[in-house]
């Protein structure tokens, strides 16, 4: 049987396919990428087989020897060229029948559960098969950037942030994985757009919103349109313009209003301090300018600072802090010392 005639059970019991899923190398990777590009109608079955193999955890102890591997690979290559019924089965008949029976029983239960889980509990979009189809873009500490995606949507990345997305985003599932902070301007094209953050996802069509991932919480601030935020616990929250959702690591979540300039001004190079205490000011300055702030002097516990800076230098921001705190500053390389 040729691969184009394979059903789900056949993939689950094919050693060459299992070898690719569990221990891919250049040869198997090249073969399956080329084969999938020529047989897109089999993509859904292949993805399901991959998920099952990874979930079941096939034993990796039965590795093929180099000579067997070469024979197998040559047979596979010949099978897609030769229309004769050459045998590519590498498992003894008894073992093959046993595995097929086990796989068939497992598939019904597994697929039923996975279907329920993805349809009603937590459905993630289908990502690509390997890193060759994945694009990663990021920013270093103190830098920001704007990325235009293939569907003309724009992603503004704040300092020390990263997005991962599919290279065929314009024609397939539209999804982006985010680390750090990003502002999204999503173009409507009839397909939903999903932002993935750890165990949470944000579903949108055409809208603009800000997402910030911190150690203790996730915040989603909506400017235009409408989004739905879901997590793996089953929580679903719809956001309307001018609403912000806060999701604490502890599990608490709540909505609040937000200051547009304070939350999204960073994408236009606007740094905002809004009655911030020293620790928040320190974090903002370090993240914005890519420096380390060292406090050598003393500052009142009740001290807070407010100010708005657009395209301003580190020195000008520190002068503003100096006027209200009395702290002098000294800059040496990427370190800033504050002292009395």
TrEMBL record:
<dbReference type="GO" id="GO:0016989">
    <property type="term" value="F:sigma factor antagonist activity"/>
</dbReference>
<keyword id="KW-0472">Membrane</keyword>
<dbReference type="InterPro" id="IPR032508">
    <property type="entry name" value="FecR_C"/>
</dbReference>
<keyword id="KW-0812">Transmembrane</keyword>
<protein>
    <recommendedName>
        <fullName>Anti-sigma factor</fullName>
    </recommendedName>
</protein>
<feature type="domain" description="Protein FecR C-terminal">
    <location>
        <begin position="271"/>
        <end position="336"/>
    </location>
</feature>
<dbReference type="Pfam" id="PF16344">
    <property type="entry name" value="FecR_C"/>
</dbReference>
<keyword id="KW-1133">Transmembrane helix</keyword>
<dbReference type="InterPro" id="IPR006860">
    <property type="entry name" value="FecR"/>
</dbReference>
<feature type="transmembrane region" description="Helical">
    <location>
        <begin position="98"/>
        <end position="117"/>
    </location>
</feature>
<feature type="domain" description="FecR protein">
    <location>
        <begin position="139"/>
        <end position="227"/>
    </location>
</feature>
<dbReference type="InterPro" id="IPR012373">
    <property type="entry name" value="Ferrdict_sens_TM"/>
</dbReference>
<dbReference type="Pfam" id="PF04773">
    <property type="entry name" value="FecR"/>
</dbReference>
